[in-house]
Amino acid sequence: MTAAANPIPRRSLLLAGGAALLLSGPGGALAQPASRSPIGIIGSGRLGGTVGTLWAKAGHPVLFSSRHPERLKELVEAAGPNARAGLPAEAAAFGEALLVAVPYGALPQVGQELGQALRGKVVLDACNAVVARDGAVGQAAIERGIGLASAEHLPGARVVRAFNTLGSRVLAEQAHRAGGLVAIPLAGDDAAALETASALVRDAGFDPVVVGPLSRATDFAMGARGYGQVVAAPELRRILGLTG
C-alpha cells in the first residue's frame, strides 16, 4: 500500500490548528464536536494530515498512519495531544471511522490489506482518480463512476465520498469560516454512515451537503460541476441542482 507519508507544510498545519480553534458558540464558547469517536487516517499526506489535524483539534482521538510512522512526528506534534502515529493496520483497527486519502491507484491494495478491519466501519473516501498517475485503476473508476468503484475496492466498508473536492491548503484556510461555512459534498448508500460523515464534516469546520447515493459522487468528481467549489451550502446545492 502506498499511503502518502509526506507531512503537510508547517504553515498549513498552523492554519488548520488556528481554524479549528475559532470560537463559534454564543458568548465565545468553543464549538464542540458531535462526537469524540476515534478516527484513523489512511494516507497522512497533505489532505489526510490537514483533515486529521482539524479533527484532533476538535477533540477526536486521531491516529495518522504511514508505512513509516516515524516520519509523521512533525504532523503529530502540530496536531496536538489527541494525535498519534502508527501503521495503516493500526489506524484501521483504531478508528470507529476512517479517512482514506491515498492515490487512487493504491485503493485496491488498501482494500486487500485492510479489508477485514474496515468491514462495517464508516470510511470517508477522499481519493481522486488521475489517469496519468493511477493508470488502469483510475481509468476504470472514471468509467464506472468513482463512488461505485471505491465501494468495490473496499467491500464491506460503509463508504462515503467526502473531502475530495478541495485541496489541503483551502481546507486549512477555510475551516470554520466566518459568515457561512464552506460546503463539503457527500455521497453514500448507507443513511447512518452519511449521518456519521456529516457530523465529522461539521466537526472539521464545514457544512455537509448530501448529494445522494454513491452513484451521484460523479457530480463532484474531478472536473465535474461540484468539484473545487469554495461556496456555502445553498450555493453548492444550486450548482448541483439539489432542492431543499
What report would you give on this structure?
This protein is of the alpha/beta class. 41% of the residues lie in helices and 15% in strands. It contains 10 helices and 8 strands. It has helices at 10-20, 46-57, 73-79, 88-94, 107-118, 131-144, 146-153, 168-174, 191-203, 233-240; strands at residues 39-42, 62-65, 83-86, 97-100, 122-125, 158-161, 183-188, 207-212. An 8-stranded mixed sheet has the order 3-2-1-4-5-6-7-8, sandwiched between helices. Helix 3 links the parallel strand 2 (62-65) and strand 3. Helix 1 packs parallel to helix 2 (46-57), helix 1 runs parallel beside helix 3 (73-79) and helix 4 (88-94) crosses helix 5 (107-118). The longest helix is centred in the middle third of the chain and has 14 residues, at 131-144.
